[in-house]
């Protein structure tokens, strides 16, 4: 019997490399699993602050482990991840507040559907986590937006919108939504199953997620299954 359609909310920030992995996997599965995937661009700095957590990269042993682990997950998920030359500067000094306000503005402008949010997020991830490019300056955000298929005039409007109070408030409220689920890090996926929210932290919980929503996990490339579970 076909399972009923589940709503799946994906909270992420492009500062998070593990979120990129999970994002690409969910994009591959969104038409394979019987789900309505909803992107929830949020701010990881706000989640860390609000939950009393601290970025794992701030703990030297975790940073060392993650450097190796990210190399492995990049190969496993088939996502071209190459850490920026100065990870601390990119993640913590420059940060992604402007970038996530920009994505929030794209979401606001798009209203129906998530196609542009998906493409813009991917272009921003590529910049910070693949080609070591800036994601803080208006010119950088414009370049990502153009690659994602937006026009120069649309981007001008989105950039202005991204600096507005309603967009700042929207990013805060989506971040708060994640915190209301007791989120402490990204990626954070909320699957609505039979009126209950099933919460998943990380890009390494897909097998369990599939089990909870009554779907099959066949590896990171559902078009080329590696497992017959
Ligand atoms: N095991 C998870 C995975 O494989 O995806 C790790 C995910 C992870 O480390 N996420 C970072 C985070 O928010 C952001 S890139 N961590 C919070 C924490 O570890 O408490």
Automatic annotation (TrEMBL):
One of its GO terms (biological process) is glutathione metabolic process. Pfam families: DSBA. InterPro entries: DSBA-like_thioredoxin_dom (IPR001853), GST_Kappa/NadH (IPR051924), GSTK (IPR044088), HCCAis_GSTk (IPR014440), Thioredoxin-like_sf (IPR036249). The active site is at 16 (nucleophile). The keyword Transferase applies. GO terms for cellular component: mitochondrion; peroxisome. One of its GO terms (molecular function) is glutathione peroxidase activity. It is an enzyme of class 2 (transferase). Keywords: Transferase. Its EC number is 2.5.1.18. It catalyses: RX + glutathione = an S-substituted glutathione + a halide anion + H(+). Residues 8-211 form the DSBA-like thioredoxin domain. Belongs to the GST superfamily. Kappa family. This is Glutathione S-transferase kappa. The gene is LOC109074799.
